[in-house]
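Project outcomes to date are best conveyed with an example. Our students and postdoctoral researchers have been running inverse folding experiments weekly, and each run begins with a structure described purely in tokens. The record below, which covers 472 residues, was selected by the lab manager from last quarter's runs and is presented without edits.
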């Protein structure tokens, strides 16, 4: 079989190229036009591109013809041929959905504010429509929600969460641990009850049952969804309240298939927000530590959009663990800061884990430089911001979020099964103590307020300045 000529293959565009060309064509079409001209580029569920174009009636025929010509040349097979005239007449039946599309669409940048893009989606709604703020303010006298997230598994994330829970409980804080790694639950088993059992119901059960019970006027009995992990520290009894993902029986996967990660259409809080509020109101913890699903799953999208007060993010020497962190950092950082209504970034603690002992000094230096570049690109705002957000001016601040907590590889923790056997090791290791100190720093910083509260300053480290990455 004769291979297809290279020139012919090059004429077949990929979608990303067609999409970029379509944006460029719309920008050119609107260039030098009056302010009334604007456009939304829609990607429909079949992967075809469509346009809603607002322009004066007297120019419509010409504008439609030019738009179709330009988009056909720019997008090839991905162009649907569909250009709809945008309506501004409130009595017109199409006005409502078109204006809704404009509001839902995403800006492509301040250089061209009259062109927006709107991708329709079959899944991953939690990455776009989930909560972007915690359910209550992050203040020193309030419970703090801390998320533990990694793009890849096997990086020591759950171990770090368990160690953090032990340290906080040893300090006398009331700690709740919530296992939201639904596809591969683990932390609920690591922190099991004294006889090795966990609660029969867990987070998945609550998310499914709470809306049904609420509609029936019944309050979910929160005690059914958690168990207690007890330990002793310095002769004092301590406990951690643990919400497992759920019992891994034959119905668990069926339950996962029924979960809805979207916001309620009735205006009620998402069941996960309801669970967090109920935990705060009934158990009165100082901390809720959430173990997230890895990667780009639905629950990860729901959790990494800003729902948690502090986000503990993990990277390792392996490059694969960094691939999705930039996207999450952008959501929590750079995406929140541009424009006149910008907010400060969500609080982040950056952890480099599983660092090997061989060549540790060189490894730490290389990873620290990569961390600096990653945060500069995805998290920090531009240096001209004079609000309480991290900016490029903070890249040399040893207390800035890009300076990592370094957790070395510990063979004793490589096959973590029964936490009780290694609890003393987890409480002894200094990197976990530093991680806890960073969490306290974030909590104190949250208490100072956010932009719009009358403050005109960047964040400053509290409780002392965290040190630069150490060699061990």
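After processing, the design step wrote out the following sequence:
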């Amino acid at each position: 079989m004769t291979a297809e000529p290279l020139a012919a293959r090059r004429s077949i565009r990929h979608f990303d190229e067609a999409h970029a060309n379509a944006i460029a064509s719309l920008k050119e079409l609107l260039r030098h036009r009056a302010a009334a001209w604007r456009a939304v580029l829609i990607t429909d569920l079949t992967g075809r591109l469509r346009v809603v174009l607002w322009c004066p009636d007297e120019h419509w025929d010409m504008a439609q013809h030019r738009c179709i010509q330009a988009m056909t040349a720019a997008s090839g097979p991905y162009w649907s041929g569909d250009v709809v005239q945008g309506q501004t007449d409130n009595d017109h039946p199409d006005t409502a959905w078109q204006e809704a599309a404009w509001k839902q669409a995403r800006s492509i940048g301040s250089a061209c504010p009259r062109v927006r893009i709107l991708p329709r989606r079959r899944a991953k709604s939690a990455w776009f429509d989930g909560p972007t703020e915690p359910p209550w303010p992050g203040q020193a006298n309030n419970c703090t929600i801390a998320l533990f997230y990694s793009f890849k598994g096997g990086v020591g994330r759950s171990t770090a969460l368990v160690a953090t829970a032990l340290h906080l409980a040893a300090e006398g804080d009331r700690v709740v641990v919530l296992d939201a790694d639904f596809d591969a639950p683990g932390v609920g088993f690591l922190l099991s009850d004294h006889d090795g059992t966990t609660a029969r119901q867990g987070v998945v059960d609550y998310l499914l049952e709470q809306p049904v019970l609420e509609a029936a006027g019944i309050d979910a009995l929160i005690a059914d969804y958690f168990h207690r992990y007890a330990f002793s520290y310095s002769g004092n009894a301590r406990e951690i309240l643990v919400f497992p993902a759920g019992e891994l029986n034959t119905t668990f996967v069926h339950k996962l298939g029924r979960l809805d990660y979207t916001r309620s259409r009735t205006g009620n809080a998402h069941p996960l927000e309801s669970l967090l509020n109920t935990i705060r109101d009934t158990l009165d913890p100082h901390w809720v530590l959430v173990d997230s699903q890895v990667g780009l799953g639905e629950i990860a999208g729901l959790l990494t959009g800003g729902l948690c007060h502090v986000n503990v993010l993990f990277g390792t020497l392996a490059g694969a663990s960094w691939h999705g962190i930039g996207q999450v950092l952008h959501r929590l950082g750079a995406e929140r800061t541009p424009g006149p209504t910008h907010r400060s970034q969500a609080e982040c603690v950056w952890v480099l884990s599983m660092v090997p002992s061989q060549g540790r000094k060189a490894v730490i230096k290389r990873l620290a430089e990569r961390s600096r570049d990653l945060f500069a690109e995805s998290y920090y705002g531009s240096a001209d911001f004079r609000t309480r957000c991290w900016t490029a001016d903070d890249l040399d601040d040893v207390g800035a979020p890009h300076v990592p907590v370094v957790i070395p590889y510990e063979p004793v923790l490589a096959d973590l099964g029964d936490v009780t056997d290694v609890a003393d090791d987890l409480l002894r290791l200094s990197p976990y103590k530093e991680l806890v100190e960073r969490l306290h720093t974030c909590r104190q910083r949250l208490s100072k307020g956010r932009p719009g509260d009358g403050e005109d300053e960047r964040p400053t480290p509290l409780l002392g300045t965290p040190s630069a990455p150490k060699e061990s």
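The chain has a mean pLDDT of 86. The longest strand covers residues 347-355. The training component of this project remains on track.
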